[in-house]
Amino acid sequence: MERIQKIIASRGIASRRAAEQMIEEGRVFVNGRLASLGDAADPVKDRITIDGKALPQAEQKVYLMLYKPRGYVTTMHDELGRKTAAELVDCGCRVYPVGRLDAASEGLLLFTNDGELAQRLMHPRGRIAKVYEVTVRGADELTIGLLRRRIELDGRQIQQPLVQLMRSNADKTTYEITIFEGRNRQIRRMCEAAGVTVARLCRVQEGVLRLGSLTVGKWRYLTDDEIASLKRENG
């Protein structure tokens, strides 16, 4: 048995919070009986309706990662006709990108049809670590300290980033930067505040998920262990 709002969210109809509101508004019935907040149901045996329409059958949950190339946007459809990352995922079912990775960036992008997990992963209070390899121009010995600052973005201080020097040559420097939130273009804005120009930005890890040997433009299904760990991290 599961809470009714959880079942509704798992079918991709609405977020759990929106499902709770539907229940409070008297729009949800279970086997013909008006549902109340706190009620549970059998997602297989019980018939749940919203506004008189039955919930769609549960679809098999799919979890995969893509190595998004530069030049692809993460929206499902782009009004400007730009290439979308979803075009590269030919898994035979409809999955959606979790979070953002701007067109000029590359790297790990998670796709799933598990709406409930996606909501948890994208929640602003989430502490899932995202690791990036960032190559910049114009760095000096002070840059790493500037990148480690808790600067203010959109009127609020960012969480403390972790920054490590990876390599450096005459004109480019590469850092490993770990952040714990998903502010819009956060790393690019951190670099701008530090006075350096981003030459390459690649997400190499998100929580337990690592790009590993995955090559640009390719995707793979997550393993059972990866899925279980991802759910534990965001339970």
- Stretches where pLDDT is under 50 for at least 5 consecutive residues are none
What's the architecture of the largest domain, going by CATH? Answer: 2-Layer Sandwich
CATH hierarchy, class of the largest domain:
Alpha Beta
By CATH, the topology of the largest domain is: Alpha-Beta Plaits
Can you walk me through this structure?
It is a single chain. The protein is α+β, with helices and mostly antiparallel strands. The protein folds into three domains: 2-54, RNA-binding S4 domain (Structural Genomics Hypothetical 15.5 Kd Protein In mrcA-pckA Intergenic Region, Chain A), CATH 3.10.290; 66-125 and 218-233, Alpha-Beta Plaits (2-Layer Sandwich); 130-206, Alpha-Beta Plaits, CATH 3.30.70. It contains six helices and 17 strands. It has helices at residues 4-10, 16-24, 115-122, 143-147, 186-193, 224-233, and strands spanning 2-3, 28-30, 33-34, 40-41, 48-50, 53-54, 63-68, 96-97, 106-112, 130-137, 152-153, 156-157, 162-168, 173-179, 197-206, 209-210, 219-221. Helix 1 (4-10) crosses helix 2. The longest helix has 10 residues, at 224-233. The model has no long low-confidence stretch (mean pLDDT 92).
Describe the secondary structure blueprint for this structure:
Elements: E1 2-3, H1 4-10, H2 16-24, E2 28-30, E3 33-34, E4 40-41, E5 48-50, E6 53-54, E7 63-68, E8 96-97, E9 106-112, H3 115-122, E10 130-137, H4 143-147, E11 152-153, E12 156-157, E13 162-168, E14 173-179, H5 186-193, E15 197-206, E16 209-210, E17 219-221, H6 224-233
Parallel strand pairs: 9-15
Antiparallel strand pairs: 1-4, 2-3, 2-5, 5-6, 7-9, 7-17, 8-9, 10-14, 10-15, 11-12, 13-14, 15-16
